[in-house]
């Protein structure tokens, strides 16, 4: 049975997955790269990186994944739908390596990239998008790639089986908060917290059998 | 040098130190006792309790403390200033055992309780209240007892040397959030996070030498 998973979604102590304002120069706003330094330090990200708990969690990002769904705000800065040449932040070989579905009210034709990533553009509800992505995943799992708003939408729609958050020891004060609307999440998910020597705390939410 | 400390302030994953609405029947609103079960399970709280990491943190609540400052919302439910007989939630022998200063716009004469606790009522700024409490503490440390609003006020006034939060794996969705206004806290405090087998994560903020 194909599962729907979120991995490596980094948040501040106060729950913000991105700062503000988001722009082409600052995709995470005033958060800069501070939310993701734990990941850059791992072997998952770069040769010679750490191989402990942070890496053990980070590598699950790709394991068994057959498609990704992401929000418009992850694919590009504000205004990207007006740029017909925009192909994402990630250069010619994006780190997805599967069909990747971008949720947008401004769909365009698919873009085939190197390394197995093809961007598809969907104006769809979470249910519809997941059905399409699961079909493309061919029995493998679907990753909800973020940002926080999209993750929240899929969680509140009851579509997420596994959610991995990484809490970074900074207080951002403003941005997009992942927790909003998720009251009572612990009732449907088994929650586990484990802190890492790097200073981050990994939070996993795994859906209970119903 | 006397220090100002916060201990055992329990918060949800989304940062709420209390739910809502607060009342005589439900001091923590819809959070109930869920934020404090980790503490009730320790030897600090009850004979036969656990003696591991949760207890190690919990006992620091009393160690070296000579006075407490608390907010009006910790001392009683909404409306307590209208009840001349209200003496707090804690019965004849409150768990403070020192002079305890209640910040309120409705001061009343001091109330001497059993076990060394005397409640004093102050209409004062954080700076003024701390000066008064430090005097009463006689060289020992002053604890800021909460709630979250009072802790925030003292932290933003630059008066807190050590802050211990306990993050409980529940999402409350609403209440009083401890993080509001604390952007950049990591710049003036060394932050440490350690998760406990009980499921909570202890966060300590210790002021850096300036």
Automatic annotation (TrEMBL), chains A, B:
InterPro entries: DHFR-like_dom_sf, RibDG_C, Riboflavin_Biosynth_HTPR. Residues 8-183 form the Bacterial bifunctional deaminase-reductase C-terminal domain. It holds the Pfam family RibD_C. This is Dihydrofolate reductase. It comes from Occultella glacieicola.
């Amino acid at each position: 049975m194909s599962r729907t998973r979120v991995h490596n979604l980094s948040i501040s102590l106060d729950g913000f997955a991105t700062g503000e304002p988001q722009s082409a120069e600052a995709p995470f706003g005033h958060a800069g790269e501070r939310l993701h330094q734990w990941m850059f330090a791992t072997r998952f990200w770069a040769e010679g990186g750490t191989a402990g708990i942070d890496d053990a969690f980070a590598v699950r990002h790709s394991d068994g994944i057959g498609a990704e769904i992401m929000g418009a705000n992850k694919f590009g800065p504000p205004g990207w739908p007006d740029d017909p040449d925009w192909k994402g932040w990630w250069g010619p070989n994006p780190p997805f390596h599967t069909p990747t579905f971008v949720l947008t009210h401004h769909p365009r034709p698919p873009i085939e990239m190197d390394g197995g990533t093809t961007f598809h553009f969907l104006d769809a509800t979470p249910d519809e998008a997941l059905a399409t992505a699961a079909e493309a995943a061919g029995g493998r799992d679907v990753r909800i790639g973020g940002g926080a708003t999209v993750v929240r939408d899929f969680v509140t729609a009851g579509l997420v089986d596994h959610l991995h958050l990484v809490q970074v020891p900074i207080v951002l004060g403003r941005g997009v908060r992942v927790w909003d609307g998720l009251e009572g999440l612990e009732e449907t998910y088994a929650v586990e917290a484990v802190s890492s020597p790097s200073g981050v705390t990994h939070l996993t939410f795994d859906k209970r059998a119903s």
